[in-house]
Amino acid sequence: MLIANPKATSTSRRVRDLLVRAFSGDLDLELAETAHRGHATELARRAAEDKYDVVLALGGDGTVNEAINGLLAGGPAPTLPALAVLPIGSTNVFARALGLPGEPIGATRLVLDALRAGRHRWVGLGLADDRYFTFCAGVGLDAEVIREVEERRDAGARSNPLLYVRTALHRFFAGTDRRSPALTVERPGHPPIEGVFLSFVLNTAPWTYIAGHPVNPSPRAHFGAGLDLFGIRSLGVAPVLAAVAGMLLPNGRPVTGPHVVNVHDASEITLRADRPMAFQLDGDYLGERRQVTFRSVPRAIRIVI
C-alpha cells in the first residue's frame, strides 16, 4: 500500500504518478491518498489488519508518524508490514536520519533496491503516553512555534525555513512566558529536575534542519539507544543564543552550559508542568499537556532501506 499525502509541502501529482509507475513494475501496488488529518493512521492500520507486506509512506514527517501509529496500533510484532519512507515534506528529518536522501526520487531508487534485495532495518521508536514518534517530541516554545506555523499555513502561508525562523523570533520575544519555568523532568531512580522552560525528547539526531543544516542539541541520540533529552532553565537572550550556537556546531558534542539540562539513553522520562504547555510530536502540534511520559521502544518497526 502506497499512502500518499497530496497536501505535503513539496508534493505534486506528477511526482506521485512517477513514483507509482516506478513501483508498479515490482509491486502489486494499492494507492491510498489521505483526505484528512489522521487518515494515514487509519489506512496503515487497515494495511496491518489485511497483512500487506509493505506500506510506503509518501509525505512529510507527519505522514510517516501517522502511518507508524497505524501499523503499531496493536503494538510491535515481527509479522507487521515493513515501512518504506518516500520523503516529500519540507524537512524530512526521519528519512534523513535513516540515511535516505531528503527528496523522493533519490529515496525511491534506494527503496526499490532494498525491496528487490529483501533488505530491512529494525528501528527503535519513542512512545509519548500512547503515541509513537520517530525523531523528536517537544514541550514548550518549539511546540508553540509549530502551533503558530500550522495556523499560518492554514491561512495560506508557504512552509519554508524563513517562516519557522520568523515565527520562532516572534514567539520568543512576544509570545512565550520567559519568566516562569513550568516544567519538571523526572526519571526513575533520579532526583527531579525543576525549573525547566522547554524540553526536547529525542529518539535520534538531529533535532531538525534549517535550510539543510542540522540542528543538533543531542548528537549522541540514535535509533539503537534509549531517549535523550535537552532542556533549558533560562530563556534569557544570552543563554538561548549560546544554546542555539552549540546546536549548530558540527562538533558532535551535546550542548552544555549552566542553564542546560541533558539526559542520555533513558528508558523513561516524564515531563510535568504546573500549567498547560504546548506539545508536539515529530513536528505536528498535538495540543496542550500538563504531563507526558516518554518511553523508549527498541526494535519497534522494520524499515525498508
Automatic annotation (TrEMBL):
Residues 1-132 form the DAGKc domain. Keywords: Kinase, Transferase. The keyword Transferase applies. SUPFAM superfamilies: NAD kinase/diacylglycerol kinase-like. Transmembrane segments: none annotated. One of its GO terms (molecular function) is ATP-dependent diacylglycerol kinase activity. The keyword Acetylation does not apply. Pfam families: DAGK_cat (PF00781). The lineage of its organism: Bacteria, Bacillati, Actinomycetota, Actinomycetes, Streptosporangiales. This is Diacylglycerol kinase family enzyme. GO terms for cellular component: plasma membrane. Its cofactor is Mg(2+).
